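INTERNAL AUDIT FORM
Audit reference: QA-55
Scope: verify that the stored structure record matches its stored sequence.
Auditor: D.O.
Record contents follow.
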Amino acid sequence: MRTLMISFLMLGLVLSGSSRASAALPPEVKKELTELGRELKDVGPLIRKKQVDEAKAIIQKVDDRLKELKELTQPEDENDRALTTLKTQLEKARFGIPVSFEREVAPILKENCLRCHGEGQGSAGLRMHTFQAIAQGGRSGPLAVARQPQHSLILARMLAEQDTARMPQGAARLPDEKISVVARWIDQGAKFDGENHEAPIGDSTIVKKPPVRVVRADGTETVSFKNDIAPWMVNVCLGCHSDRNARGGYSLETFEKLLEGGETGNTVVAGDPDKSYIVDLVLRQKPMKMPAGQAQLKQSQARALETWIREGAKFDGVDAKAPLRSLVPTPEELEALKLASMTDSEFEDRREQQAIETWKRVSPREQAQLVESANLFVYGSATEDRLKQISQWGESKVEMLVEKYKLPAAEKAWRGKLIVFVAKDRFDYEEFNNVLLDRRTPKEISGHIELTKGLSTAYVVMHDVGDEGSEDVMTSQQLVNSLLAQAFLSRDGAVLPEWLRQGFGLTEAGILGTSEFMKAVPGRAATAVSTVTDASKVFEDGTFAPDEVGPVGYLLVRYMLGNGGAAKFQQFVTELRSNPNVAQAIQKVYGVNSANLGQGFLRSGGK
């Protein structure tokens, strides 16, 4: 068995006769080879006595001398019996050196196998991130059969001749010396020499750092880690010191890892900036070495770091194990904080200025004017009388919505009011889509809403289509009603299902039967619904075509209002604002799954 394994891992040695003529080595060389062979016979006993270092020294001595002799001999001398015999002895001796799984095998597996067989991805049911997982094997069975390398799957895969069968997949065959390490380990019993079978492989060889001590800030500090240190660390340092790219073995992924330090040791020494290597890097070295390849930190930032460490390197965040990035607000979060701190009057002033600036951006040559009411800023190029009329329609609709769908006491429909942009020409309306949203405008669309979280943006845009209307086009009043209803439903900036938003808009656009457009809605919806075969898909976005979503949504909203009333419908919308999963919201509010509610809707014909 051992001879078999040695033979196929001999690193290209010729163990049998050759057709080439063999030159005789000088007698003194043959004598030296014989002496070296005698020394190799001591390797086995030394290993049995646990004197492995001494055994390795003999092997190294013989190996080094063979390399020297190779320089002195001719190529044809390679086939001399004395030389090939010694090489065979050397490989047998090397094969007997104990192999450490953690120190020698684990690095090979981590480098070549975990990409496809790691903790998060177990191709063929095989994971190799822990020794326990390796021992368990995959769908093809155990990876290693102790003391039987020739029957071990892992070696068969490593030595496979076909590229499609050989592992690691899509890569060149591993070097013979690495395969030999795995074979020797299996031949010696495939033993585990780590501390914990369930720990990541190679874990026992990693020098464990002592647990860090996180000291909480008590308010007496002059420098805040969260406000004064974390922002520039996240923006400047994480590129080179994250978990995925920890240069110098130093990661700033979390506050705890910041305190752990890297390969240089005392990166942060609480209370002593002079012993803190990080201060030396960003403040005292000339030229400064950190941040590498970037502009230097501001002097004030480096000094703040020094002071923070002198004051005890205390933590004023919530969770020292959480990503450092979570301490630093995003631009959107900073904007939300800024808006939240504004008074209602300041918020309204900001919204009015937004209306003016947005119009100038979209239609700089078109003069516009503003009509302000309790809930709306109506802004556009129509006549003042027309804008006032649209404003009156809008205020009337908002009052109806607030009355029907009760708001908490003192809460307005939209903080800071809602902008209603009115374009008297189709071209001007399309420019809002082209300039602000970089999208084309379908011919059947004459208005849309745009509300973001925190209401940093809150407006509707409409083309003043007129007061006649048709089977395909709403009147301007119906369009205002529909857009304001959609904006009311999404008044906190939540992203709601398209069928819900558009359907609610049509439901509140006008009384059914008062216009040719509204009369046609149920028929359009019924045609689309008749093609549905899976009731559970009724409430999913994407089930219906863009031109069908509104009419079908109209029937769905009416059905839901008829099965629980406005209060339950409002509860359903509230659930979606915090959790966009429609099926879960239906189950929680209506007490049935989405398939059952969908079946009920289909049986009712939307009534």
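Auditor finding: record pair retrieved intact. The longest helix spans residues 52-72.
Action required: none
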